[in-house]
């Protein structure tokens, strides 16, 4: 194990990249195919950032999100095409990762904390049902926190405070695992133990 066994009693896991494999290049390709080239540049433009942030924080509906994207895609693009392009980045969940989570929950209190959105979670939950016969991650984690449900995002302090306070966790006994440096830095400011996962060379399966 890569961290002190004796000190850690609680583990907060990220979802994308840590549990489910993702590939952002497929997202860029998929939107290009429905008439929105340079999706990466579009995503990071200041005037578009609010759209993605608001959707991830549950401040706008899936339909408003789709309608806004359709304005920038080819005429006649359907809701299903938007959803398919948006979900194209989501790949597989290796069985051994779920088996690991089931195993370590016998020793640790485990939680899920993800910046995600309604469209992605509908897709992921369908995948869990079809692939593993599992309705959602609530079957594994003590509690799940999705940004679009709690109306806040990592790395904001409030979302870490929410998990800590609602579950009466001691910070010095809590580890946060994520693959995004910005999120790790946010957790560090809250005095949590952290581990930055390099998804190109590591898997959570190798950490325990």
Describe the structure.
This protein has 208 residues and is of the alpha/beta class. It has 2 domains: 10-21 and 93-206, Rossmann fold, CATH 3.40.50.1000; 24-87, Orthogonal Bundle (DNA polymerase, domain 1), CATH 1.10.150. The protein is 45% helix and 11% strand. It has helices at 24-33, 39-44, 46-56, 62-70, 79-87, 95-104, 118-132, 147-150, 157-166, 181-189; strands spanning 10-13, 109-114, 143-146, 174-178, 193-196. The protein has a 5-stranded parallel β-sheet with strand order 3-2-1-4-5. The protein is globular and about 60 Å long.
CATH architecture of the largest domain: 3-Layer(aba) Sandwich
Summarize model confidence as the mean pLDDT.
94
The percent range for strand residues is 5-15%
Instruction: Give me the number of helical elements.
Output: 10
Distance between the termini: 4 Å
Kindly state the number of beta strands.
5
CATH level-3 fold name of the largest domain: Rossmann fold
Reading side by side through the largest sheet, how are the strands ordered?
A: 3-2-1-4-5
CATH class of the largest domain: Alpha Beta
Strand and helix order: EHHHHHHEHEHHEHE
The CATH superfamily label of the largest domain reads HAD superfamily/HAD-like
Main sheet characteristics: 5 strands, parallel
Summing up helix and strand content along with how strands pair, one would put the structural category as: alpha/beta
As a whole number of angstroms, the C-alpha radius of gyration is 18 Å
Give the helix level as a range of percent.
40-55%
